[in-house]
């Protein structure tokens, strides 16, 4: 049974039968790929939900670059961001002509250490990006106070979590801006896409101009993006019999899939041109948004389960995790994280998610190009070495979570 249902983070975690049907229907209507009413509906629903001006782009990284380009300020202004982040974040900062300055994290939250942030503020600092890592809420209350004291902007990076009626209540409350991603494994998915939500009408004016000037993705690129749910839906159950990987390799080889990071991005550079959110991706993201409560409830149920098991077996995990959070993934800490992942992979359990063993993720990201000095943020570095993330995504079942916990019980006993 588990043979045809791999446990994973990255094999199209949002894609179920309904998503495949929606994608097929979009593929048959190419006139809706670039422009159509769904993008404006998505904007309206996000505006209503989060009471902010909404600007849509082809990815979260572009939405962040758009905001930073829209900000006036000193040349080479500094943007404070946490270590243990995704490479595309410093890439976007640098594409906007600004400088990423890293602050360390707390191991208990995997989020910014506010005292360390204060130490890194200089007269050139313009903004703080606070990442709610894996959906663990950052201390926006203290960060807001810090921003007010030093005259800085607060950007909440909500790529990993979108709050709903149930919470988390503090996310999106104190920031001037909220960054959303509609990437493949994010809170909701449009295969690609992102939004900058602004509560600063003065800066919204420039963001509107940035979105107005953005160019469309080519029809070919949108078609390739729409292949992603279909290719993975076929490849995923074939992983256990060794055919999934070659099928994905072939799909990539013939150009049927768009990589998450371009070659240039992997080298620490981002094209500064901004793109409109394709209407087809908006349409998929809109379906996710309308389902957000159910998606988050599922994540809450798995978080609660992992929390109870981790507490029962005395596994180590960030202390700030609360059983009611809709985590994007549930992090454990163990000395042998990589060995455990390797051993599980042989059993069709794929826990490599790009967020382990790297201070700037995924592993192999160029530190120098990302302006990160190894050794400068020791807690981020040691957390990243020990992290073992468990999936909570919409297609991860409770039964799979039970099976995973069963296997971990032995593996973690041998390690810790
Ligand atoms: C913390 C964080 N912020 C921002 C982004 C950017 O999102 P996108 O992939 O939509 O560009 C990511 C994506 O991986 C992320 O992990």
Structural key phrases:
13% strand; 7-stranded mixed sheet; two-stranded parallel sheet; Aspartate Aminotransferase, domain 2; 416 residues; binds pyridoxal-5'-phosphate; globular; alpha/beta
Q: Could you estimate the helical fraction of the residues in percent?
A: 40-55%
- Number of extended strands: 13
User: What do we call the CATH homologous superfamily of the domain at 29-213?
Assistant: Type I PLP-dependent aspartate aminotransferase-like (Major domain)
The computed structural class is alpha/beta
Secondary-structure topology with pairs:
Elements: E1 7-8, H1 17-27, H2 37-50, E2 53-57, H3 60-70, E3 78-82, E4 85-86, H4 88-95, E5 99-103, H5 114-120, E6 125-131, H6 140-150, E7 153-157, E8 177-181, E9 194-198, H7 201-213, H8 219-235, H9 244-253, H10 263-266, H11 279-290, H12 292-312, E10 329-333, H13 337-345, E11 349-350, E12 360-361, H14 378-386, E13 387-391, H15 398-415
Parallel strand pairs: 1-11, 3-5, 3-6, 4-12, 6-7, 7-8
Antiparallel strand pairs: 2-9, 8-9, 10-13
The structure holds pyridoxal-5'-phosphate.
Outline the structure in words:
- The protein is an alpha/beta fold and 416 residues long.
- It has a domain at 29-213: Aspartate Aminotransferase, domain 2 (3-Layer(aba) Sandwich), CATH 3.40.640.10.
- Helix content is 42%, strand content 13%.
- The chain has helices at 17-27, 37-50, 60-70, 88-95, 114-120, 140-150, 201-213, 219-235, 244-253, 263-266, 279-290, 292-312, 337-345, 378-386, 398-415, and strands at 7-8, 53-57, 78-82, 85-86, 99-103, 125-131, 153-157, 177-181, 194-198, 329-333, 349-350, 360-361, 387-391.
- The strands form four sheets. A seven-stranded mixed beta sheet has the order 2-9-8-7-6-3-5, sandwiched between helices. A two-stranded parallel ribbon has the order 1-11. The chain has a two-stranded parallel ribbon with strand order 4-12.
- Strand 6 (125-131), helix 6 (140-150) and strand 7 form a beta-alpha-beta unit.
- The chain starts with 6 loop residues before the first strand and ends with a helix.
- The model has no long low-confidence stretch (mean pLDDT 97).
- Pyridoxal-5'-phosphate binds next to helix 3, strand 4 and helix 4.
């Amino acid at each position: 049974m588990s043979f045809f249902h791999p446990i994973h983070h990255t094999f199209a975690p949002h894609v179920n039968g309904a998503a495949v049907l929606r994608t097929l229907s979009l593929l048959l209507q190419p006139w809706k790929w670039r422009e159509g009413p769904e993008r404006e509906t998505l904007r309206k629903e996000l505006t209503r939900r989060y009471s902010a001006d909404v600007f849509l782009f082809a990815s979260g990284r572009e939405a962040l670059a758009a905001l930073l380009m829209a900000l006036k300020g000193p040349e080479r202004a500094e943007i404070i961001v946490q270590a243990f982040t995704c490479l595309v974040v410093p890439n976007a900062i640098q594409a906007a002509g600004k400088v990423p300055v890293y602050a360390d994290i707390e191991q208990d939250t995997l989020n910014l250490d506010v005292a360390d942030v204060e130490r890194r503020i200089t007269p050139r600092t313009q903004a703080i990006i606070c990442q709610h890592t894996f959906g663990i809420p950052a201390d926006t209350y203290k960060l807001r106070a810090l921003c007010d004291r030093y005259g800085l902007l607060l950007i909440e990076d909500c790529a990993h979590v979108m709050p709903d009626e149930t919470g988390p209540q503090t996310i999106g409350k104190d920031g001037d801006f909220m960054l959303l991603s509609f990437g493949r494994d994010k809170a909701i998915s449009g295969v690609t896409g992102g939004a900058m939500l602004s509560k600063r009408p003065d800066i919204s004016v420039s963001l509107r101009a940035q979105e107005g000037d953005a160019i469309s993705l080519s029809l070919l690129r949108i078609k390739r993006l729409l292949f992603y749910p279909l290719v993975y839906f076929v490849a995923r159950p074939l992983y256990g019999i060794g055919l999934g990987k070659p099928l994905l390799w072939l799909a990539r080889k013939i150009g049927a899939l768009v990589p998450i990071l371009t070659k240039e991005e992997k080298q620490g550079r981002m094209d500064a041109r901004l793109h409109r959110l394709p209407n087809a991706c908006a349409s998929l993201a809109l379906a996710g948004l309308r389902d957000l409560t159910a998606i988050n409830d599922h994540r809450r149920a798995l978080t609660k389960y992992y929390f109870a098991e981790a507490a029962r077996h005395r596994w180590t995990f960030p202390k700030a995790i609360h059983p009611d959070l809709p985590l994007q993934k549930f992090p454990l800490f163990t000395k042998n994280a990589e060995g455990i992942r390797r051993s599980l992979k042989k059993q069709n359990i794929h826990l490599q998610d790009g967020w382990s063993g790297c201070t700037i993720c995924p592993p192999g990201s160029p530190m120098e190009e990302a302006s990160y000095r190894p050794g400068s943020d020791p807690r981020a570095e040691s957390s990243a070495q020990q992290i073992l993330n468990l999936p909570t995504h919409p297609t991860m079942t409770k039964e799979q979570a039970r099976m995973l916990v069963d296997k971990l019980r032995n593996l973690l006993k041998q390690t810790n």
